[in-house]
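INFO batch 0412 | record 1 of 1 | parsing
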Amino acid sequence: MGLDKKEYFYITTPIYYINDEPHIGHFYCTTAADILARYHRLIGDEVFFVTGTDENSLKTLQAAEKFGMAPKEFTDKMASKWKKTWEELNISFDYFVRTTSEEHKKSVEKLLMRCYNANDIYKKEYEGFYCVGCEKFLLDDEIVDGKCPIHKTKPEWIKEENYFFRLSKYSEKILELLQKEDFALPEARRNEMIEFVKKGLKDISISRAKINWGIPVPFDNSQVVYVWFDALINYITALEFYKDKSEKFDKFWENAIHLVGKDIFRFHTIMWPAMLFSANIKPPKQVFGHGFFTINGEKISKSLGNVINPVELAKKYGIDPLRYYIMREIPFGKDSDFSISRLEERYKNDLANDLGNLINRSINMLIKYNNSKIPKPDENLLKTSEHIFVKNIGENLIFEIDKSYKNFEFSQILEKIMEFTKSINKYIDKTKPWQLKKENKIETLNTVLYNIFSAIKMISLFIYPFMPQTAQKIYNQIGEKNEVSKQNYQQAIKFGSLSFDRIVGEPEILFPPLN
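INFO prediction complete | emitting tokens
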């Protein structure tokens, strides 16, 4: 990952339960993955971005029954709805994985047999509390006042004979993996997992009996593969693991980065690596557990009745402003309450007043003072302290932003971009192009105008991963005819890459006033 050479980049979201429609929490994680995918394509990396749906769960059966539909009919309908939603919200995924697909079934069977042949799977009777919402057996310390603390429901007591995976066998290897600083992030969650492993790992149930929905255990058709053991394998299904030889797997897997919610961080940093160790496969490169948007301090979920529909919000505020708000409002690893009033504040102040105003006033000045043409600056004036700071800030940002992407610092990236935007607005106020025109100081005026539009070009490239439609509009307004996503980022982002005498377009209101 970086600016100096092309690399392979594999980014995934969790696969989402399809018992209901996407909400703002799903959009949050998926947008973060989309931002990373767009940035890496922009800097020239070969990217594979995967999202999808988790369909082989008990809650799928219950939802299908609720709607009076057969499970397959229900999953086909809901998977189509999820895929369409991401397309409507401008998510640039490369592959949409479904756990009911024949390819996924083959991948599960292949990995499960590797674990079985490694003597890591055995059968025994098990009993315990099971939360359908979490699709997992709960430990005693995970139950609060007799209920699941996440779904606020009483778990079921289940007793049956299942197949178990020897998770305990891999305690030392998992601990060694977690102690690598860059595998599990953020650090606070990584430390929690380290302490969890140090207490001792117990073998886990990986199958369910008496359920007629899911992937049958290949060596015992009376049981189906437990939802998490099945679901985690989706990340390699997408890379064609089911094949005897997969170029995609060989190319992308060692660069895999999983973005997940903090509630499933343990599955991805402990259970998933252990499964891979058993199957003689390297673990993913990185797992990042993000925080939640909450409503009145509680996780957004259908069962709690506090779901926010991102499609409806996007219709009112626009997709890009919504993307901006959810990524700007909080550091990616932390929790925060979702707030319409804060969304509107960000829209008005950051986007309309700072960014939108900069583009609009700059284009109007260029139309008025230089017949819509980008002027040639005075090279000597560009080197003076009054003007060179624009170049210095912009070019330093290139490397600061790249470093922040590596650390998943989306909020900080946007903060830096908006600080740069504000500095250009202040530069305009300080240099007063209208006064320079009045006093006929044409060389200084041309230098100021060129500086402004060079900065705007850089800003459009900086914001592209976060607000792709807005970035493209800005790019076109300043006379760039190409698609932002297909630019040579290395060349285009540099100060001074803006050619002279190009004609800018008419100013367009990027962020209309809210009704």
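INFO post-check: The mean pLDDT is 92.
INFO record closed
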